[in-house]
Amino acid sequence: LPSFIRQLLTTHGHINTSQLTNSHMIADDARQGLYIIDERSSTLRLSAMGRKILLNGLTPSFMALAPTKGRLYVADSTRHVIHEIEVMTGRELRALPQVFPRPTPFTGMALTRDEKRLYVGNQGGGGVLSAGGIVVYDLEHGSAPVSIGGVACPEGMSITADGEHIYLASQCGGGKDALFAVDTNLDVATAVAPDLAIGRAAVVVPAGRKVYVSRGEPERITIVKARTRETVGSLSIAARSMAVSQDGSTVVVSDSTNRRKLHLIDTATDRVTTVTLGMSVESMTIGESNGNAMVIAWVPERKEAPVYFQSVAGLLAGAGSADLGGR
């Protein structure tokens, strides 16, 4: 891997919380690693310390990294388990079974910073009698999982930099789908912003200043101030995935309707810069190298060099900004 990737996500001893939540692509500084879910082939690609491992047959949906332990937690909605994978060997250490009355897709995952507890969203709804919920797995002692009620059809999860709260979108609320916050000390979920149907995912910037909630019908991103719980704006963006820079200054969004587009949101002003690439982005993450935020993307159509990387500053310099906002 290029030398700058070795410094991604853990520069200056800080943990980028995109490692700890439901991601399709993760960079691991300690092991010079890059872990990618290849959706086209349902393959998990592990590259660490010069070793490359392809894991087939897992049908991975998303993952979270325990950087100290060197373990990946991979959600598998086909087998209804969470695979715990040792990143250096690709060996499965255990499979955490889904805890839900009936099989249903996993919709979110967040790992606490001490790597002791894993929060997992179960979709529910549809043909399933229960409207979903959140389950907390004790990874250290293996005690019985704890269920958190009060959240209908949870979607996506994002943990704050201090690890105190997890934000998530929701569905199945009869058009009144709320943004929820889970207090990780009390394991209690609270609706913090109503009327955000149809919720798909949420990302929170460091220090909890704002939460960006991707929504459908119509496609857009709604912005909520975390402390005041006030909805402060809306962006006309169809989000496939979202990632936030370590300093919280930029949210990068891959476009679901045109996979060649990336949208860069300045979190101070919520002004958007749209960049059109010469390739389709399958998944992406954002990290930091020597103080510079870097976008890393999985681009399988570039067979010889399927990993694309560019600094946020470089992307901004190559495109004009646009106001996609509205209230």
What does this structure look like?
Helix content is 2%, strand content 48%. It is mainly beta. The protein contains one helix and 29 strands. The N and C termini lie far apart (43 Å). A hairpin with a 4-residue loop joins strand 6 (71-76) and strand 7 (81-86). It has one helix at 312-317, and strands at residues 25-28, 33-38, 43-48, 51-55, 62-66, 71-76, 81-86, 92-97, 106-111, 117-122, 133-138, 146-148, 154-159, 165-170, 179-183, 188-193, 199-204, 210-215, 220-225, 231-235, 239-244, 250-255, 261-266, 271-276, 283-289, 292-298, 307-311, 321-322, 325-326. The model is unreliable at 1-14 and 320-327 (pLDDT under 50). It is globular, with a radius of gyration of 18 Å. The strands form seven sheets. A five-stranded antiparallel beta sheet has the order 17-18-19-20-29, with no helix packed on it. A five-stranded antiparallel beta sheet has the order 21-22-23-24-28.
Task: Give a concise summary.
This protein is mostly beta strands and 327 residues long.
The total count of helices amounts to 1
What portion of residues belong to β-strands? Answer: over 45%
The major β-sheet equals: 5 strands, antiparallel
Q: What is the chain-wise order of helices and strands?
A: EEEEEEEEEEEEEEEEEEEEEEEEEEEHEE
The backbone outline, from C-alpha atoms, is globular
The Cα radius of gyration reads 18 Å
User: How are the strands ordered across the major sheet?
Assistant: 17-18-19-20-29
Q: Alpha-carbon distance between the termini?
A: 43 Å
In quaternary terms, these chains amount to: single chain
Structural class, from secondary structure content?
mainly beta
Number of strands: 29
Helix % is: under 10%
> Which runs of at least 5 residues are low in confidence (pLDDT < 50)?
1-14, 320-327
Mean pLDDT: 86
